[in-house]
What we know:
- This protein is an all-beta fold.
- The chain contains one helix and ten strands.
- It has a single domain, classed as Rieske Iron-sulfur Protein (3-layer Sandwich), CATH 2.102.10.
- The chain has one helix at residues 3-6; strands at residues 13-17, 25-31, 38-45, 48-53, 78-79, 86-87, 94-96, 106-107, 109-112, 115-118.
Amino acid sequence: MTAAEGELDPPRRVLCRGTDIAEAAGKGFVLGEGRRKREVFVVRKDGRIFGYVNSCPHAGTPLDWMPDRFFTNDGRFLICATHGALFEVEDGMCLRGPCRGLALEPVAVAEEGEEIWLLEPDEGFAPTPAGAAGATSGC
């Protein structure tokens, strides 16, 4: 058996349909619960998707000022609702604000077929859908 044959596929879970995230828009998800709870978001820019932990590197607060609102009005940057810091969509780097030079924590995601996938462990919990207890948003 070769090393490649013995390797397991990385953990994967469908987050939502690709059509649920329009250009220059995003969706937030709550993964896990209790101490394992983790809020993440996925955004689309120039037809590509990017995932990040929903936590400002400066204050630790969620970025979205309303559920699923992560972009500046012109759709060019991600913005922190707490203090207006601007982040590059492609790499999460802070360009302006008190966290300049820091970056959002990336989350491995992929769009395959008609679905957006989480490509890392999520502690075995499904994404919490919108409207469910403790959810900030979802599909």
